[in-house]
Amino acid sequence: MTEKPITDSPMTEKPSRQKPSRRSFLKLVAVTGAAATLGTRGAAQTASSPAKSGDLLVYQDGPRKGQVVKVADLKEGTAVWAQAVDPATKKPRDAVKSGVVIVRLKPSEIKASSQKNAVNGVVAYSDICTHQGCQAKELGSLGQGKGNIICTCHGSIYDPRDNATVLGGPAPRRLPALPLKTDAAGELVAAGEFTGKVGPK
Ligand code: FES
């Protein structure tokens, strides 16, 4: 139920089921330009990293909110939104920047650039747009947006098959990937930190 079906329009904003506080924060970032302060600690994330190896990926919202995402829950061509949480506390290391969009792809579609971070056809990226910090909350179905992650604030499009490279819109750089692995129960677990800085410069 938290799977986001492919949308009819890559540019149509859908109602969010996320917590108002998170959405409000993201809106504020987009409007005020405060996004410039996000991720200023750089790509080499260590103590303050919003995700670390071993973190569990749990649903952000919906009836499974807080439950760990399993590969078996995911259908090819769909996406779910999750948060990386510390396995000890079950809480995200950062209320905003620990968010990820998880996409299940046909394994044959995954480009070499994404292979090393994928597991069983599943890839995960930061869901914070690198333009002005809105949440990239859609997976498109038409035209250039087909099968791609879309930020509806200003239309940035990222290719989940190719390490979230930018296909369109004003985003200056790709979404950082979160390397994945699975545990014995088939649950998704972070295999490392984000591969780059989360959010805009
Ligand atoms: S914040 Fe501008 S396209 Fe995402």
TrEMBL record:
InterPro entries cross-referenced by the UniProt entry: Rieske_2Fe-2S, Rieske_2Fe-2S_sf, Rieske_Fe-S_prot, Rieske_Fe-S_prot_C, TAT_signal, TAT_signal_bac_arc
Q: Which residues form a coiled coil?
A: none
Q: Which Gene3D superfamilies match?
A: Rieske [2Fe-2S] iron-sulphur domain
The Swiss-Prot or TrEMBL record lists the needed cofactor(s) as: [2Fe-2S] cluster
Q: Give the keywords, sorted.
A: 2Fe-2S, Disulfide bond, Iron, Iron-sulfur, Metal-binding
Stored PROSITE patterns: RIESKE, TAT
Disordered: where is this region? 1-25
Q: At the top level of its lineage, which domain of life is listed?
A: Bacteria
Which part of the chain is the Rieske domain?
A: 66-189
UniProt-listed PANTHER family: CYTOCHROME B-C1 COMPLEX SUBUNIT RIESKE, MITOCHONDRIAL
Extract the NCBIfam families matched here.
TAT_signal_seq
Q: Tell me what this protein is called.
A: Rieske domain-containing protein
Query: What species is this protein from?
Result: Deinococcus aluminii
